[in-house]
Automatic annotation (TrEMBL):
The keyword Nucleotide-binding applies. One of its GO terms (molecular function) is GTPase activity. This is Ras-related protein Rab-27A. Transmembrane segments: none annotated. It comes from Paragonimus westermani.
Amino acid sequence: MVVCEDSSYSAVCYWPHLIPTPLTLSRGDSNVGKTSLWFQYTDNVFNPRFTSTVGVDFKQKRVVRESRDSEGLLGPKQRLHLQLWDTAGQERYRSLCSVFLRDAMGFLLVFDLTNEKSLYNCREWMDLLCQHAYCERPDVVLVGNKSDLTSERQVPLATATAMARELNVPYIETSAATGYQVAAAVDLLLDAVMSKVEASLIKSRIHNSTADAVHLSKNPAKKSSCAC
C-alpha cells in the first residue's frame, strides 16, 4: 500500500513530482517515547506530559531525499511524502495495531534506555513484525530513546548493539527531548526502504525491457515489396 495524497493539504501544489512513500510505523513498549519521537521529527517540539497512545495515531511530513545509485553516487533529489504511524504499546492494542503492519514498509523499533526490560521485549516486537509485515524481513531500525537521561540509563551501549546484531538490524540512539539523532534515525530507515523501492523499480524496468525485446524478436518486420 502506498500513501495517498491528501487533497485537503494545500501545500501539495508546491511539491511537483512528489513521490508517495509507504507507511512508516513505530513499535515498542508503552512509554518508551514513540509519540515524542514523531512530534520531535515533524514539529521540533517535546512535551513531557504526552499520554500513552490509544490504538493508532499518525503524522505526516514532506522531505527531500538525495537518491544514490548502486555505487553510492548521488543521484537526483526525491521529494517524499511520509506517513508516520504511532502504535500503542499496551498488550490490549496489539491485535488492533497488527492490522497496520501489513501496509508499512519500514519500522522504528523503539526501546527506553532507562528501562532494560523494554530492550528485551524488542524480541517479541520483532517476532510480531515478521509475522504480520508485508514481507518476512521488513526494514527495521532499533532505536534506543531517552539518551539524554544519562544518570538513569540502564542499558549499556554494548548490550544494545548486541541486541541489534541478534535481530540483524541497525542501531541508533536518540533523544526525543533534545532532538538528538531523531532525524538521523528516520533517515537511516528511509534510506533502507527507498533502496529497496529503487531496486524493485530497476528490476521492473529490466524485466519490461527484456519482455519488449523478446516480443520484437518474435515479430520481425515484414520485408518491403518495393523494388527500389
